[in-house]
C-alpha cells in the first residue's frame, strides 16, 4: 500500500528524445512510492513520442498528454501544473536528472506550513563531464523579512524552480506570463508569500547549454525574439503584475525595483567585460 501524500512530477517536453530516457529514469526510480508522472508532449516530431509510449506502457503511474499544435514553452510549463493531482508538485525538464531521494528528502521540509518550496544541492553538468556541485547556491529564504525574500529571489538564477512545491500554493498564483525569463515572475511572487528551504543531501543535476537570446527563443517557442527593450518591459511587467496579485501593490513595486537592479547589474558587468577586452586589445596591438 502506498503511503504519504501523492506527489506529481510534471514534465513539459518538446523534441527531447536525445536525453529523455535518463530524465525519465531518474523520475520513475524515486525511493518514494506514491507518485504520479504527468508528461505534456508539445507536438514533438523526433523520437520523443515513441519513448513516452514505451515508458507509459511499463509504468502505470505515467500519464502522457499529446499536443498536436505546439504551445508556447511557458504555457506547456503551466499545463503540467494544471494536470497535477498531487499535494506536492515538481517541474522536471527532459534533460535534467535527480537523485533517488529527491522526493522523499524534500518532503521532509514541509513540516512547517509556511514552506512553499524545498530544493536540494545543485549540480551543473554539460552532458560530457561529471556533474559538479554549484557551491554557494544560497536560495533559501527562511528567517528573512518579505522585502529581503523578494530581493533575494529577484537577483538569483532560478534553478530552484525545479524543486518540490506545495501544489495549492502554486495554483493560487495569478501569473502574468513573461516570454523572457518566464520563471522569474513565478519565483519572485512565490517568495513574497512563502518560505524556500534547502535540504542537504538531495541532488538535482541541471544540464546547462549556453544559448544566445535568439537561440533560446527558437528553442522554446520556435519564433524570433523581440527586441531587448521589449523583452525587458515584458519581464518587468510580468514580475510587477504577478507579485502585486500575490502580495499587494507595495510588494509589486519592490519586486519591480529589484528586478530592474538585477538587469542593471548585468548591463554593468557586460560593460566591464567589454572594456577589459578593449583594453587588452589596445595593450597587445602593435
TL;DR?
46% of the residues lie in helices and 20% in strands. It is of the alpha/beta class and 286 residues long.
Q: Largest sheet, described in full?
A: 9 strands, mixed
- Please, what is the CATH homologous superfamily? Spore Coat Polysaccharide Biosynthesis Protein SpsA, Chain A
Low-confidence stretches: 212-218
Written as H for each helix and E for each strand, in order along the chain, the element string is EHEHEHEEHEEHEHHEHHH
Number of strands: 9
Overview of this structure, please?
The protein has helices at residues 17-28, 48-58, 73-83, 102-107, 146-155, 167-171, 183-193, 213-221, 228-247, 249-284, and strands at 7-13, 35-42, 62-67, 88-91, 97-98, 115-125, 132-133, 164-166, 195-207. With 286 residues, the chain is α/β, with parallel strands linked by helices. It has a single domain, classed as Spore Coat Polysaccharide Biosynthesis Protein SpsA, Chain A, CATH 3.90.550. Strands 1, 2, 3, 4, 5, 6, 7, 8 and 9 form a 9-stranded mixed β-sheet that branches.
Question: Which features would summarize this protein structure in a list?
Answer:
10 helices; alpha/beta; nine-stranded mixed beta sheet; globular; 286 residues; Spore Coat Polysaccharide Biosynthesis Protein SpsA, Chain A
Structural topology:
Elements: E1 7-13, H1 17-28, E2 35-42, H2 48-58, E3 62-67, H3 73-83, E4 88-91, E5 97-98, H4 102-107, E6 115-125, E7 132-133, H5 146-155, E8 164-166, H6 167-171, H7 183-193, E9 195-207, H8 213-221, H9 228-247, H10 249-284
Parallel strand pairs: 1-2, 1-4, 2-3, 6-9
Antiparallel strand pairs: 4-8, 5-9, 6-7, 6-8
